[in-house]
């Protein structure tokens, strides 16, 4: 794929990935066929900041984990009321990274 298109994608979507994943995303996009550009443009990622806000407001119910697709942990948080509140507070610090990891997982499942 053209480097200019890849750079444009990276500028627009870098916030959705961990910084150590950016090089791997760029390399994968550069290796793709030009016909995949339409698929690349249709990719939608979860917003880490939105996940944090949802975690602050509904973290004890596991809504944040359900939202990023981590159903098992969402059910566990729901049944334990956010680990008696402790797990919910810990997730305030971890949910943005978990969202970015899920975005990378989604990207990898699409192209690998």
Automatic annotation (TrEMBL):
It is found in: Membrane. It is a multi-pass membrane protein. The keyword Transmembrane applies. It holds the Pfam family TM2. Keywords: Glycoprotein, Membrane, Signal, Transmembrane, Transmembrane helix. Its main location: membrane. Residues 46-93 form the TM2 domain. The chain crosses the membrane at residues 75-95. This is TM2 domain-containing protein. It comes from Flavobacterium buctense.
């Amino acid at each position: 794929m053209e480097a200019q298109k890849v750079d444009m994608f990276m500028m627009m979507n870098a916030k959705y990935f961990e910084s150590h994943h950016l090089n791997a995303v760029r390399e994968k996009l550069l290796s793709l066929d030009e016909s995949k550009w339409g698929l690349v443009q249709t990719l939608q990622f979860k917003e880490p900041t939105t996940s944090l806000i949802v975690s602050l407001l509904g973290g004890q119910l596991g809504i944040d984990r359900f939202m990023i697709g981590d159903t098992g942990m969402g059910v566990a948080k729901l049944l334990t009321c956010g680990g008696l509140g402790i797990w919910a507070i810990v997730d305030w610090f971890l949910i943005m990274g978990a969202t970015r990891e899920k975005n990378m997982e989604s990207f990898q499942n699409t192209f690998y």
